[in-house]
Design goal:
Elements: H1 2-12, H2 15-24, H3 43-52, H4 58-65, H5 70-86, H6 89-101, H7 109-113, H8 117-124, H9 130-136, H10 141-150, H11 152-155, H12 161-169, H13 176-192, H14 194-204, H15 210-216, H16 222-229
Helix pairs in contact: 1-3, 3-5, 4-5, 5-6, 9-10, 10-13, 12-13, 13-14, 13-15
């Protein structure tokens, strides 16, 4: 089954797109995606392939998700999301366990962003969420990103408590991919409840990384944006 997924991806591959993606996902020496290999397949193409192969079993997906090729891992995750959404209660737990067991391969921001809230976030809504705090303390940047992006599922249900708690835990994170993710989640809170976002910002904006703040206030009006973004020595 993975062979046919790989075959479909190979057919859709583009050397030109692969070159662009290698730069976009920072695959150079010392960069966060160092050594990642791209075929040059777009996300919409991968979604179509994933839907076609939603019957692929977890053993086969495990082989695919451990591949060194980016699109193999992402398509495996997109299949996993499709399977999760169609699964019953018991099978959902198996899928979440699989996701957590293989999280070392969820190792670029798109892999996290297209799976974390849809699988882990959805499953732990209404359950114990302590795993998110544990992952937020991880030395691994992708685990930290999974922890904050998983809360997007809660935010979409107007439940902001854990998103704000994880945001606070990650507020001084040095990695720009975490700073951007935190700012993004704060902005998403603000779309639904600007008062809740501003309460957080009023408490923390003087000490927040500029990247986080810039993402968080993106939708604000000019004067309010100026207020939060003004230099703190002014």
């Amino acid at each position: 089954m993975t062979g046919s997924i790989k075959g479909d991806l190979a057919k859709a591959a583009s050397a030109e797109k692969a070159k662009t993606l290698r730069g976009f996902f920072k695959t150079g020496k010392g960069e966060y995606g160092e050594g990642d290999v791209f075929l040059g397949v777009t996300v919409p193409q991968q979604r179509n392939i994933a839907r076609k192969h939603v019957g692929t079993n977890l053993n086969e997906l495990e082989k695919l998700i451990s591949s060194g090729i980016h699109e193999h891992r992402l398509t495996a995750l997109l299949v996993l999301v499709e399977k999760y959404q169609k699964a019953g209660k018991n099978d959902r737990k198996k899928i979440v366990d699989f996701y957590l067991r293989n999280r070392a391969h969820v190792n670029n921001w798109d892999l996290v962003d297209l799976s974390a809230d849809k699988i882990l976030g959805d499953y732990i809504f209404g359950r114990d969420r302590k795993i998110l705090c544990r992952m937020a303390r991880s030395k691994n940047v992708w685990e930290r990103r999974i922890s904050i992006i998983s809360t997007f599922n809660f935010i979409k249900r107007n439940d902001f408590e854990d998103a704000l708690k994880i945001s606070e835990m990650l507020l001084q994170d040095k990695h720009d991919l975490i700073q951007k993710a935190v700012g993004w989640m704060l902005r998403e809170i603000g779309k639904r409840d600007q008062t809740a976002e501003e309460k957080f910002l009023l408490k923390h904006h003087k000490n927040m990384p500029r990247t986080t703040l810039r993402y968080a206030v993106e939708r604000f009006g000019k004067s309010k944006k100026r207020f939060y973004m003004r230099p703190q020595h002014a």
